[in-house]
Amino acid sequence: xxxxxxxxxxxxxxxGRAWGLRDCTLDIGAGRVVGLVxxxxxxxxxxxxxLTGLLRPTTGELELFGRPVRPGEPADGVAxxxxxxxxxxxxxxxxxxEAARRxxxxxxxxxxxxxxxxxxxxxxxxxxxxxxxxxxxVALSVxxxxxxxxxxxxxxxxxxxxxxRRDLMGSLMAAKAEDDCxxxxxxxxxxxxxxxxxxxxxLDHGRVVxxxxxxxxxxxxxxxxxxxxTVDEVRGVPVSADRRGTVTALLFRGTPxxxxxxxxxxxxxxxxxxxxxxAAGRPTEVAx
Length: 288
Ligand SMILES: Nc1ncnc2c1ncn2[C@@H]1O[C@H](COP(=O)(O)OP(=O)(O)OP(=O)(O)O)[C@@H](O)[C@H]1O
Description:
The protein is about 30% helix and about 30% strand. The chain is built from nine helices and 14 strands. The strands form three sheets. A six-stranded mixed sheet has the order 6-7-8-3-9-10, with helices on both faces. A four-stranded antiparallel sheet has the order 2-1-4-5, with helices on one face. It has a four-stranded antiparallel sheet with strand order 12-13-11-14. Residues about 285-288 have low confidence and may be disordered. Adenosine-5'-triphosphate binds next to helix 1.
């Protein structure tokens, strides 16, 4: 088997007495686009900061492309983009790109200039005068010009309006198609990841509750919907149940049970998968 892009073994990070991430074991192949999802405080940023070497693990091991991550050392081949799109406000875009060129050993200035020009972002404008969407695009250009093997994005579109969100995600996918890097991006908005990601990691309370190839996960689950009044007639143990008044949806992993009258089996969306697996860990939401 080829060397995984990300190999984490019982990786954990504790803040004082509380765990931000615990027992995280992952094997993710190179070239994947990984969607990292979970509610507030689930541990997404903690995992991303461990990947980039910004945080030191409390337990476990982490290798990227077969090389151990050394916290505190800038990881060669890893580019990080956070939701603030940190840039030097007073610099002109051209100066920003020059500064990034000087700071990065691995840098393709043509990539940065061409992207910024193609997007119609004026090179002489100050970063502080750019729109949120333009700023995000400049930050993405800086990340891509580093020619990363692994591109890590922490909620990159959180602060953007819907159009700018779509544009940034489009740019990301175009870049991914040209340059076969591995991408990990976190988001609260599962629907936004649906068309982008081919690998899913769901975190809750610092633990991985679901991970795997998106197509395989979708194929391995089925969603049954029917009248809440006859939910007791459905045999088997669902991952979780979502009761909405007179209609209940049950997510099953594997072969579904025979359907009582009025029930039907349907395909599963990424959102169904995520929400049902998150609900499975919360007893109050499981009860039908
Ligand atoms: N520096 C810190 N000191 C103490 N606790 C922290 C620190 N950073 C994170 N935590 C805690 O660790 C847990 C995981 O936080 P983390 O920021 O990784 O979650 P997240 O999934 O990124 O959340 P959000 O979606 O709100 O950004 C939370 O309970 C958080 O309060």
